Amino acid sequence: MEESGNNLPLAGVRVLDLTQVVAGPYCTMMLADMGAEIVKIERPGYGDDLRRTVPYKGREGHEDYFNALNRSKKSVTLDLKEAQQRDIALRLAERADVMVENFSPGVVTRLGLDWDVVRQRNARLVFCSLSGFGQSGPYCNRPALDPIIQAVTGIMSVTGLPDGEPTMIGAPVADVIAGMFAAYAIVNALRLVTADGGGQYIDLSMQDAMLASIGTRMGETLQAGIAPGRLGNGNPLRVPANTYRSADDRYIAMMVHDQAQWKPFCEALERVEWIDHPQFRTMALRVQNRKAIDAEVARRIGEHDAVYWRRRFEHFSVPHALVNNYAQALEDPQVAHRGLVRELEHAVSGTIRVVGPPWAMSATKSWLAAPPQLGEHTAEVLKDWLGIEWAGKDPV
């Protein structure tokens, strides 16, 4: 456990967390990184589904998936289908500043923990429902997982090789982006809370969040009605921009971002004759002759190893990077310099590594604590928030 986070922006904010798996826990983890107190409600004897995900080989008995998204939280076990324990959850909601849930639409209503109920008890509450498709509409009751959202939002259609199949991005980006947008919306909603009210309901869908994240690449479709195809690792507007294999079988990603970079790129490759080549001299010409220039660049990169090209590209300030696997990415010297990977002491797993918050603030440093064991903080939270003693299943 690291030093206290009392000076963080959300210090003193209480969050009742009824989420599991990825999107919701990512949201509340971001709030924890900013200093909020996160009380995670879990099913007795079971907990978040990620606690039971098949472990990595050689990591049996460790909750590595769960630990990746649940640092700095407190775990309270309550059976929300049991009336007395559901009432305790409602009492916790009365004292919370934020409540986050990512059940399927309608579940919190059936449990009696929905916005219409809790706002009668707590007019200052910011309540966020995070779901695959939102709380209404023709898709609202469809089950949604990250690959499903990547498919329906078109991300798969532009990912993969031109002659290959639509391809999923190799990380749960739809879940994570939805969690980020949820945290962003919650923090903004908190600014409108007053001493006697100002709470509000946030309906956030993974589908909406993923479409919003596409940014400028959606402009072509929004304004011109064009649905772009797959270019593999290429860029539709910039050439050369691709991954190329070096003589030692390392892939290098590089891009000539604008016309000013064309000359230094040619000099880095020791192909100055390309600078004014009739097919290559402007970006528009290079886009038209994409296959020809990509083939020439690929042949040239294949003549030397990756170290040689890194030195050349660094000298001429050409945007580039080696294509790392995840292990290499974490060992990158810039990552080490930034202190992104942090170590925490876990009661079961010992020293664990986590990817910390990706910001550096001049006056505050995020305080991180180990992910909780199931139900670890039940007695502590009920005593602190509600002033009741907890003896197993029933309060006393």
In short:
By secondary structure, this protein is an alpha/beta fold.
- Mean pLDDT across all amino acids: 94
Total helical segments: 16
Q: What kind of oligomer do you see?
A: single chain
Strand order of the largest sheet: 3-2-1-4-5-6
Q: So what's the CATH class of the largest domain?
A: Alpha Beta
Ends distance: 31 Å
What are the key terms here?
formyl-coa transferase, domain 3, three-stranded antiparallel beta sheet, 396 residues, alpha/beta, 16 helices, Rossmann fold, six-stranded parallel beta sheet, 15% strand
Summarize the SSE layout with pairings:
Blueprint: E1 14-18, H1 23-33, E2 37-42, H2 64-67, E3 73-77, H3 83-95, E4 98-101, H4 107-111, H5 115-121, E5 126-131, H6 146-152, H7 173-190, E6 200-205, H8 206-213, H9 219-224, E7 241-245, E8 251-255, H10 262-268, H11 283-288, H12 290-301, H13 306-315, E9 320-322, H14 326-330, H15 333-338, E10 341-346, E11 350-355, H16 378-386, E12 390-391, E13 394-395
Parallel strand pairs: 1-2, 1-4, 2-3, 4-5, 5-6
Antiparallel strand pairs: 7-8, 8-9, 10-11, 12-13
Helix pairs in contact: 1-7, 7-8
Detailed description of the structure:
A six-stranded parallel β-sheet has the order 3-2-1-4-5-6, sandwiched between helices. The chain has helices spanning about 25-35, 65, 85-95, 105-110, 115-120, 145-150, 175-190, 205-215, 220-225, 260-270, 285-290, 290-300, 305-315, 325-330, 335-340, 380-385; strands spanning about 15-20, 35-40, 75, 100, 125-130, 200-205, 240-245, 250-255, 320, 340-345, 350-355, 390, 395. Helix 1 packs across helix 7 (about 175-190) and helix 7 (about 175-190) packs across helix 8 (about 205-215). It has about 400 residues and is of the alpha/beta class. The mean pLDDT is about 95. Strand 12 (about 390) and strand 13 (about 395) form a beta hairpin. It is elongated and about 80 Å long. It folds into two domains: about 15-215 and about 335-395, Rossmann fold, CATH 3.40.50; about 240-245 and about 250-320, formyl-coa transferase, domain 3 (2-Layer Sandwich). The longest helix is centred in the middle third of the chain and has 18 residues, at about 175-190.
